[in-house]
Amino acid sequence: MKFNGIKKSYLKTSRKKNRPPWMPIHRELVTVVGKPGAYLSNTQKQIRTINVPVLLLADDLSDLQKVKEDLANWLIHDEPKELIFNDEPDRVYYAVVSGSLDLDELVYSGQGIITFLCPDPFKYGHEKTIHFPSDQVIVENNGTAEADPIFELTATKKSTFAMISNGEDYNLIGQPSDVDVEQVDSEEILINERGETLSEWNTPPIKIDSHTAVIDGSMGTDGTGIVPLNYGSGDAWHGPARAIEINPIQDFEVEMKCRVELTRPSDTFRIETYLFDENLNVIGKIAIVDSTVNGSQVAAEGRSGDWVGNNVNYEISSKNYLRRTNHFHGVVKVTRKGKELIFYAARLGSGDNPIHHDTLTVSRFITDSNLLGRLKYIQIHFGKYGQSTNATVPRINQLKVTELKEVSVDKTPYIIYPNDVITFDHKNEDILVNGEPRKDLKNFGASFFTLKKGDNQLLVTPEDSFETNVRFRERFY
């Protein structure tokens, strides 16, 4: 028996174990006078209970007590964990231990029955990943129950929509365009900096917040992003900054993906991106920061306007996004559409298309005309405080500046661009675009359909626009 990915050499399961062939099913019936039998009104799939007779082996009675302590540490959790039996290695239960274990103790062993409860009563096969060789495929579900698929569509060209359908139901973001309607770009990427073209950031630094007064030192690239090469010197906040000029734009999105390691409580750092208009007014700032020498923590920041005081005009700050951690891999973003500023912070998972989690979105309506100037300058800055120790490789992995374009009602906007990854997650009922939750894009009539038992005919549209994979786990009663 393996539980939570662990086997114990001191535990042996009995050959007398008897697992039911299916989960408990409760039928609710309604009887009607004068009618034979009853009507089936409801069916409930109930919690699965698994009783496992076990033998615990020990060197002596004293060692047996230690074995019992280790057993408790292994089996007791607040959430269900994977449970796999040796005689059924290709099936997984999700279980929590329940009740107590009353052992018949001998000198070198103890016998008893461990009871597991499965709040999710299904058992699962191992995850399957199937690549679509074409836009229309048949996917076979060999389970005895319906399965929840996760579709991943990687765009090979621009598109106004993405849809997956099983012939009866569909999931969809965007809008298919009529043949006589013009398709237009809704955005244009102006900067996509990963360090390779940092030499083009040759506009003199403009300024940093008044409490981080010294611009000094230099920055460069380590092959995976932009990093500080040295911070220069200063008694307070200090470090390098570089700026770049673009053709002025009104509506925009600025996204900074970054990473940092804190190896000592005395480490401090700032990773910041400033936005300036044509008159060098500060439109806003996004950042991550650790400003204490008494522990490891990371705060995300999103501010509108210039610095006028700690936590003043900050939509995101240590007040609502502070994580007591020594590692941060995440993203901060600011979007301006019309008179609305939207700030976003999230942590990123692993892999080529990391999923966003621990997210926060805060928006504000702009009433100050100084915040409505056209974006012309972008400045990045790394900082540390005084003689505090340096964080380990604070890095901007990617800085992206995108112009958002207004699309008239008689045109259909492209919302998907090459290499964008659309995830229709029917397991968790979510939609992701490049790892970011975007359920707001879901079409009104779309649904998170399942894979039925047997063959499922699936169609991806528009044609020849995506490389598609589906992941799912077959379920069994």
TrEMBL record:
Q: By its UniProt entry, which Gene3D superfamilies does this protein fall under? A: 2.40.30.200, 2.60.120.860
Q: Where is the signal peptide?
A: none
Q: Which InterPro entries match?
A: Dit_BPSPP_N (IPR006520), Siphovirus-type_tail_C (IPR054738), Siphovirus-type_tail_N (IPR008841)
Q: Enumerate the Pfam families for this protein.
A: Sipho_tail, SPP1_Dit
Which superkingdom, per the lineage?
Bacteria
Instruction: Show where the Siphovirus-type tail component C-terminal domain sits.
Output: 413-476
Q: Which NCBIfam families match?
A: phi3626_gp14_N
The protein's name in its UniProt record: Putative phage tail protein
Q: What is the lineage of its organism?
A: Bacteria, Bacillati, Bacillota, Bacilli, Bacillales
